[in-house]
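Dear support,

We are seeing what looks like truncated structure output for some complexes. This example has two components. We would appreciate it if you could run it in full and send us the complete token output so we can diff it against ours.
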Amino acid sequence: MLDGINVALVDWSRAQFALTAMYHWIFVPLTLGLGILVAIMETLYVKTGNPEWKRITRFWMTLFGINFAIGVATGIILEFEFGTNWSNYSWFVGDIFGAPLAIEGILAFFMESTFIAIMFFGWNKVSKSFHLTATWLTAIGANLSALWILVANAWMQKPVGMVFNPDTARMEMTSFWEVLFSPMAVHKFLHTTSSSFVLAAIFVIGISSWYILKGRDIVFARKSIVLGAVFGFIAIIYTIFTGDSSARDVAHYQPMKFAAFEGLYNGSEGAGLVALGLISQNTADPTNENLKDFTVKIEIPNILSYMAFLNWNAFVPGINDLIKGNEKYGVLAAADKIIRGKIAIEKLKAFKEAKKSGQIARADSLKTEIMSPEFQKNYFSYFGYGYIADVNTLIPSVAFAFYSFHIMVVLGMYFIFFFLMALFYTIKGKIHKKKTFLRIAIWTIPLAYLASQAGWVLTEVGRQPWVIQDLMPTMAAVTKISVGAVQVTFWLFAIIFTTLLIAELKIMMRQIKIGPKTEGGAK
Amino acid sequence: MYWSSIFWFLSWPVVVIISYHLIKFTIRKYEPILEKPIKKVIHIK
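Here is the complete output from our reference environment:
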């Protein structure tokens, strides 16, 4: 049904959005986490009156500022791409998607921009408590901005609080609160922000370790490490809990993604969790690129069932169950969903034609039928499937989903021990003797970024082929522009973003080498 | 209304506040160690 769609255009548009989002996500998590850390540092300064805390706050605030500026630049491009590259999507769900995006813009540009100015230039110009309030509001504002964009993203993964309007053929919001407090949105916000706290904590520990290795600013570095380690430890535990809730959401609302990130082809009761595994091409059907198998795996029995449904023996559907259907467990076959989706599309088409030709009574009757709860549940909820030609395209890249999930989880486990060791060595006064650990701490910074990016790769690659789960396939969302235009802008953005990243790294490294300054600017 | 979601959402500021108090407690308890200068060993040939 989407014969006119150019596959190369869809792929290049996806590549461009992925490029922008991944570059943007290099800067954002540090802003979210470091903002809160800086606010905590300044609170300690205001409460204790110790000038050392002011010195610590001002140093990390400088790094926060450099990162913040470049993060905003990449974020603006991302929002424009919804209009330039994904206009069909924006038209279909703009009424719903636009609201959180608009609030995000207002919060990002008004709240953060106002208070960040006081935060950077208000030292010695406003009272201590007013400055502290500005710092907290900047940090909270940054996290609230993230909330709205994550609400928008969560809605795409689990559409709620809306109704389809046959007259306009668009989705319209019926409950703002349902969209905002959708479990998917709240869990996503908590998991994303807490993982950003982890990244920022690792960043602080890593940079501080460099100072200790160089034998300079030792007290500053020790205090920063303790702060980072305590904050990071709480954040990683919170990240695990919120990640568990997010995984349960995926199991309920996106079972194909859940099966893909565990490489589960055949569902079972008491399904085991593959803790570690190597994926290879499926030997039974090597021509099918979507089918994979494990060369080697370490599986923990029953854990996956518990993770998905809080029941050790619950049935977890596998990829084959979701494609072929499983009558015993009430899993509908993909082919049946496609038929239902096509019926929904045909019914809408008939309604439009009746309306166009002035057959008012028929149009009204069709509209009543389309809007009936039974039709909505049994047919319209599969609307997007009507555009799917081959059931195999419903399977996302299993290798991508599996590895990104496992990289994220394994690194998450490593971070728990990392924070505990950093804290232990520092409070025992031994951190300066642990040269190997200090070097590992520096190299843990890129690992934190890897885990963070892996989480988003899992979220976005795992939900394919959907841009809106079950309602709109990605290929139907794309703007019909020339492939050449998307290719040119892709490479242009790649050059600009890489330049921005290099610039950020250079400016940051320069500031780190200069180090924390004492009052008056002297070191 | 998703009450459990609202409850979860409210855990965010609680975690930030707990983090602050735990950091303050740790810093206060171990301040002498954190501020202790490193003894430099001078090798005299």
